[in-house]
Amino acid sequence: MDTAIGTQKHVPEYLLKHSHDADAAMKAFEGIEGQPVVLTEAENKRLLRKIDMHLMPILCVVYGLNYLDKTTLSYASIMGLKLPPSADKNHSGIGISGSEYSWLGSMFYFGYLAWEYPTNRLLQRLPLGKYSAFNIIMWGLVLSCFAATENYGGAIAIRFFLGVFEAAVTPGFALFTSQWYTKKEQGTRTGIWFSFNGFAQIFGGLVAYGIAVGCRKYGTSLEPWKIVFLVTGLITSSIGVIFLWAVPDNQLNCRWLSKEDRLLAIERIRINNQGVGNKHFKWYQLKEALLDPLSWAFLLYALIADIPNGGLSNFFSQLIVGFGYTPEQSLLYGTPGGAVEVVALIACGWAGDRYGHRILISMSGLCTAILGMILIVALPLSNNKGRLAGYYLTQASPTPFVALLSLISSNVAGYTKKTTVAAMYLIGYCAGNIIGPQTFRAKDAPRYVPGEITIICCWGICLGILLFIYLYCVWQNKKKASIRAEPEYVKLENQEWLDLTDKENPEFVYTL
């Protein structure tokens, strides 16, 4: 363990004087000053396997449900939700127009947007594992209530509160990733749990198709779209209870690690220069986040990139119907798009960590998606197979979004700053997803050409933002290297656990 004592030149003085401002990881090392904590390569691999085995499955399943639950509306839209109320239970909906359906798609993100910053503050202030579990259970229950709604007003309210409770999952999982994994491991892990959006698309399409076919053949006492909401909602709440038991708040209270392994699990992430959490709100870190060009580049990317996401995630079933397929076929034919997303995310996450260029490699997925959307726009309506293949290619588009999400774990230090930047990123995500469904207007069906051209333009702008982020991080790393090369610079003891921001810590190196 590196314990060199250094000068205060590059570190705020109050951080050295007030131990309560340090990271929670500092508590684990109290009383063992001067005693080396040795983490061998074999122990590191053993710990990583154990952490992966206990954390990754539950993170993956929950994140898949996070995507499935907010896109269940798309399946329900072609299973009778939009039909007017009727005495025939198999053909009865809540009677909504095309514009009302677009607002239902957007309303989820109004709830998400309204609660995003407060939930990030609660993620910092409250026990991370328990607060996350509470939100998972609640959003499952809220989704189940959709089966009881009888009008547009009720549907709007449910979509809003679904957004409120789902607002915690993405920033919370980014915190879990930075808390348990080293920088070189974070891109792959973030890609893996985010890729379960694709698995959820496959699973959701198959489940919705099975329900639709079963109800058509055998009949049911409940409308098919109601069954979809009940099944997905109750599964989510059940998984939330498991999450509450399985996922700790941090290494310090992890039930599946021994006391010695808890210390080693913290030691293995020392290299991140970030720690495991700090419950004290620090105004200077909030100010730094708001003045950091990187924070605004993240927000701008999320805003522009999620205009296409908001349109495609809510209209993909109707888009496939527009290619010339039946509603039942669209449920089934949408599933390969999930497989494309899974492969793209895992491949780009692994390659980014392996070759050290997470941002540049992620851009390949966005270029693939642009090609896919060009095929949808350019090919004639009669070429349904070619346009469907184009849709599949668009599902590689999340690779840069996930890369930047992993960079919030890797490249933003200081717990208040990290939660603030995560909130900014997801506020941009919400705003983009609110705008997105409005670009797909009912009068443009079945081609939706204006919405599709908007998507191509947005993705082109995003490539420029990604290039800026890459070059900015390269520049910052050169500045920090020059500081560390100064003769008077000496690293502080336990500097990694002082809850320093990435800007003020000379030892911090930005991942590219």
Automatic annotation (TrEMBL):
The keyword Transmembrane applies. It comes from the Eukaryota. Keywords: Membrane, Transmembrane, Transmembrane helix, Transport. Its main location: membrane. It is a multi-pass membrane protein. The chain crosses the membrane at residues 55-81, 101-119, 131-149, 155-178, 190-212, 227-247, 289-311, 331-352, 359-382, 388-408, 420-441, 453-475. GO terms for molecular function: transmembrane transporter activity. SUPFAM superfamilies: MFS general substrate transporter. GO terms for cellular component: membrane. Residues 55-512 form the Major facilitator superfamily (MFS) profile domain. It is found in: Membrane. Pfam families: MFS_1. InterPro entries: MFS, MFS_dom, MFS_trans_sf. Belongs to the major facilitator superfamily. Allantoate permease family. PANTHER family: ALLANTOATE PERMEASE, PERMEASE-RELATED. This is Membrane transporter.
